Each structure stands twice: as C-alpha cells, then as structure tokens.
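User: Here's a chain of 216 residues. Predict its fold as tokens.
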Amino acid sequence: MSKLFKMPPDKLNLFLSVLDSAGFTAEQAEAISVEPSAATYIVASLSALESGQTLPKMVAGKFSFVANDIFVDYKMSRSKRVLEKEFSKGGVSDIFCQKKRWYSHNIVTPLVQPPGKRDFIVKCFDLPAHSGRVNAVMEELGYNPSSHLEGYAFARAFPQLQLLISILVMGSCTSPKGSTYSMCLSSQSGKRIIRAVHFYDTYWPAGTFFLFTRKV
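Assistant: Prediction complete.
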C-alpha cells in the first residue's frame, strides 16, 4: 500500500472529492490531525474492506476504538504451524503453543464462554496506569479485560490494527515455570506477531493500548 503523500495530485484530488461527497467534514479532518486514533481507524477500515472482510461497526473516539458485533468462538489453535500461518513465521511466542492451562483474571467470568458476538473497546490512557487500576476503571464502564481467546478473535477481525499499535490483552494468563504471562498483539518489521508479556502487578506507560470486552 503506497503512502498517501506519494499519490499523484489528480488521484489525490479525486480521493478528496469522494470523501467530500461522502459527507466528510473539515471538523473531522481537523480531529484526525490532532487525534491519530481516528486515522488509525480509517486505515484499519480500508484494509479490512480491501481484503474482503466484513467490517464491524467501529467508532473512533479520543484514546479509544469501539468495535461491535465481533464473533468469538472461544477457540484458538495451539499449533505453532497454524498460528504462524495466521500471524507470521517466527512471530508466535512458544507460550501460546504449550499445553499449560490458561486462567481468567476475573473469577466471575469463565475463560471459555458460549460462542457469540461480543463488543470490544481498545482503550488508551493518557497517564501511566497500574494494571489493577486500569481494569477497575473499565469494570465500572461495563467492560472486562479481554481473554487471550477474545484477543485472538479480535485480531482475526482486525488483522491490520496490530501493525499500527500494540494491544495488551490482560483478561487471561498462564504461568509456565512460575512466571505469569498474558497476550500482546503487536508487530515487528511489518509482520503481525503475538507475544507473551509479564503481567499482573505492573505499571504501564501513558499511551499503552488495552483490549476490553463488554460484559454480557
């Protein structure tokens, strides 16, 4: 995909006229210039349409993305070959391929739930935040931290998004050799990867993105 600034003037003018005809306003353009998440949403949306995927309802907001009606079957292969085919060669942490048990951080919410459509939010806080505090704030808004199974479904619905931002998926964990790990959807050298990150008692820097699922 070519950079926008490399587009020939005639094609750029056509592109802008299409946006204008679709009702794109100067205020929205100004919002994109000061809020990168809006531009990220547009790029992810266009990429989804370009690859023939069904585009869920997704609204860009300050420091957040909301994606509704994402189907989650609560299944994820533990085959490295299968996962690397979906993500990238060498881009899958061994932790996701081991037979170690995963646990839900929320004792009320089971790790595996009946398949169905779920609403997600990718939330970014503008201040450093502790894991527990982040979860408590979002719980009051009606969201639980997404499990790795929900994160996997989200990544399949929006494969391009993790090329733009890294997303922490903190709703479940596994503990091989006594260390606790959760999922992070990320990228490296333009390739999609899923890596394991140390969780729970952790302070995350401002600008960290977290994935949450609306309570059902």
